[in-house]
Amino acid sequence: KIVQIYAALMVSIFLFYFHDGYFDITASKYQCFLFLTYGTLCILFISCLCLKQKICFSIFYPKSICDWSIYILCACHVITTICSPYPYESIWGTYGRGCGLIFTFTIGCMYLMVTRFLPSISSILSVFLYSCFIVIGLGMCNFCGWDVFGIFKELDVTIAYRYLSTTGNVTFFAHLMCFFLPISCVLYQTSHTYQQRYCYALCVCSGFIGLYIANIDSAYLGISAFLLFHWYQNCLDHQRLQRFLEVLMFGNGCAVVLGLCSKIIPMRTYIGFSSIIYSFIPAICLCLHLFLYLYHRHHIYEKRVYLRIRKHIVYFISLCYLP
What we know:
- By secondary structure, the chain is an all-alpha fold.
- It is built from 15 helices and two strands.
- It has helices at 2-10, 13-16, 25-50, 65-83, 87-92, 101-117, 122-143, 157-160, 170-190, 194-214, 217-234, 238-264, 273-279, 281-297, 303-321; strands at 163-164, 168-169.
- It has a two-stranded antiparallel ribbon.
- A hairpin with a 3-residue loop joins strand 1 (163-164) and strand 2 (168-169).
- The radius of gyration is 23 Å and the shape is globular.
């Protein structure tokens, strides 16, 4: 239960915590991470003493490749700290945004706690999805020029575009979407009831919106790799493939909606892959149309499924040319 509460706090409070706006948000997040992790370790140790339970050292034995990897990472960082001419800076990560030996050991402690003591992740996933949904909503407000918490007032205009929502740097926001969007896609793919399907579809759309407003090329590359792998896993089952194509259409639809909203509401300028994606949406939709037609000719898709998906594709194409 203690580790479950810790995981819930890490996927919720950690995302929203900041102290002095964006000026010290990296240090604030770092301090929050250290406080939650080592605080949980102390509570676990005290609870073991109070309940008179023996501390089983077998939890430290490596049992998988991931276990070996985290131990090798810690060992390499210890070696580099010993060999470094600046050991103090290496320990605390003074010139590396706090990514020093202490940070590496904290990551190792978090990994051991989560992999050894976390019974289930279903409730944690729900907290994570709700938290990310709020983070994306705040990011969308910032993207449209609405400063919800008043933390953009003292920022220079030339650097304001680097920050978004309560996560701080826009790169961290984009990498958060690289966790949130794949999880939402898989949950949408495996949902059974209509209520679950609608909720996870909303999460998928939110993830695509977050991806577009972050506008980070590495995030586009990561999501593209996931979508290719996701397609490979579901290409042989026509029902799964239908849902995969629905995910792609959610992404296209969100890009179209953002494009239409940018005509009405002043937003940040699209650069990089965002403008490319928006420019090629009609071509993407036409390719999907042709792809479904070929599958229909080979009797993999039922006609009603094909016609329903084709209707949405034509709708998206008309939206693309509307502006």
